[in-house]
Amino acid sequence: MTATSFRSAAGMETSLVSQERLALPWTEIHGSPVAASSREVLPTGSFRRKTRILPNWIVQATKRIAELGALERGWDSYDGEPLQPGSVLAFRQLVHEFGQAIQTEPAISLTGDGGLFLSWDNDETSLQYIAQSDGSASVFYAETSGREWEGSAAECAMLEKWLWRASGKVCP
Q1: Domain spans of the chain?
Q2: DSSP label at 81?
């Protein structure tokens, strides 16, 4: 399988497919202020390590992004932009920061401006993550109870918890 590589501003080549699954010899358990406010079982906040295990869903998501990367300008018959490197970098940042909190593969599509639209839905929650072509990201989160939030991913203090909830399977 091949994947498009992008060169970051620091000159480093980035590719999701080139990373390997690595296992840690031991795991630390850390508290999370977000998790402390809930009775749910949530991931610990210790995911920001140099050595980590890639989530199971990443291979399929990377294949889907490679498929979207093959689309040319006008793919939607309305002059839709092809996949932009900035949106791939925003997706990579999501995986780097919160990949271990995401339990299932998102539905992934291309936006008209070349961004990536990721969504997770279950019977209780819905989360939409838009990786913009300029490298920024936005989030829309909704619960069946009526609770909603919309804004910049950088300003979303609850993003890890909401990704965990929206990407999980709800047991009957």
Answers
A1: 30-166
A2: P
